[in-house]
Amino acid sequence: MPGFELFGQAERTHVNDVLDNGVLMRYGFDGMRNGHWKSKELEVELQNTLKTSYVQLVSSGTAAVSVALAAAGIGAGDEVIMPTFTFVASFEAIMMVGAIPVLVDIDDTLGLDPMAVKAAITSKTKAVMVVQMCGSMAHMDALCKVCEENNILLIEDACQAIGGSYNNKPLGSIGDLGCFSFDFVKTITCGEGGAVVTNNKDYYMNSDHFSDHGHDHVGSDRGAESHPFLGYNFRISELHAAVGLAQVKRLPEFLGIQRHNYTVLRTALSQIPEVTFRTVPNGGEESYAFLNFFLPDLESSRRASKALKEAGIDGCFHYYDNNWHYIRKWEHLKEMKSLFPISKELKEGLSYLESTDFSQSDRYIGRNISCLIKLSWTEDELKKRADKMVDVIKRVI
Ligand SMILES: *Cc1c(COP(=O)(O)O)cnc(C)c1O
């Protein structure tokens, strides 16, 4: 997954364009720029890559999710359904706009279980936030249907899935709004950065204004711009966009390497009868950012995770036992350890977390090992890694 492994002259050239004219901000200063509009150019590149009408760059993936929720008018007291397996940014963003995150089980895609989503819908549900974890996707047809039938929005967090697709639609372009991250460990990076994508002009205009203090961006005099509504600062800088502009042009190359490396590891592991792989829905094409597989039970997965580490195989995660991506270890959420007071409504809205049974998610995450696909492995390293992984896993199951 990490685009940070491969960068060089193209990134430097774009960054130097920005430094040479000194305009580090994406808006205004038209006369000083020598025609360099890195953020705007990156937005156009992303529109083409993601086949969406509108792209708004922002400062991070977390900002993208926050802006997407705000742009869709989601706020205090609204419920947003999200998966138990994701990144903490999902509930952070939902809570930031004052809405209530409703965590529900995943299925063998490692994405939201459409049945669990259906069961969690109440009169307060405004959106479902599907998270396309580790480069693959949930059962999107079923989720789209549930959302349509219940008249709720589908927000797609595709921060980990640029380059994946479903029925030939890029992941991130299927929901009403899609979100991307270009942080340092994503497939392409800006250092820090993110994007909101949509085909809906209103959501786009809202994102454009909201991410820049509510500025309407009409005319070229920033002081004369009006504020149709309140906003915040989630802007990306030109320096970050410059790096991203070089990276996005290399996306097909990155995806090709990812796919090759993934395939070598998967083919090797397929020899082991006890190893199964996450379900990719029919019509789905992974981005191949991670290889996710299941072992027979929690204990064999624990043994495998430990043994892989001991054998020097880095980048294989057992999310059940780490704090990163799974509800089991999110004490700060479950105990609502907020630095500042949170509303009574939100507190009450989160109280379900103490009593809800997430054993369905435990069954998948407990047995899952998730291996980051690096782009810098040589063929020799890749082959050795594959052989070693097979040896280790055979030994511990
Ligand atoms: C990385 C990530 C984010 C947040 O992105 P940042 O740019 O790090 O803020 C959100 N959701 C998922 C699924 C991610 O992997």
Automatic annotation (TrEMBL):
Keyword terms, alphabetized: Aminotransferase, Pyridoxal phosphate, Transferase
Pfam family, one: DegT_DnrJ_EryC1
Record-level Gene Ontology MF annotations: transaminase activity
Recorded superkingdom: Bacteria
Gene3D superfamilies: Aspartate Aminotransferase, domain 1 (3.90.1150.10), Type I PLP-dependent aspartate aminotransferase-like (Major domain) (3.40.640.10)
Similarity-based family: Belongs to the DegT/DnrJ/EryC1 family.
PANTHER family per UniProt: DTDP-4-AMINO-4,6-DIDEOXYGALACTOSE TRANSAMINASE (PTHR30244:SF34), TRANSAMINASE (PTHR30244)
Stated name of the protein: DegT/DnrJ/EryC1/StrS family aminotransferase
Organism: Geojedonia litorea
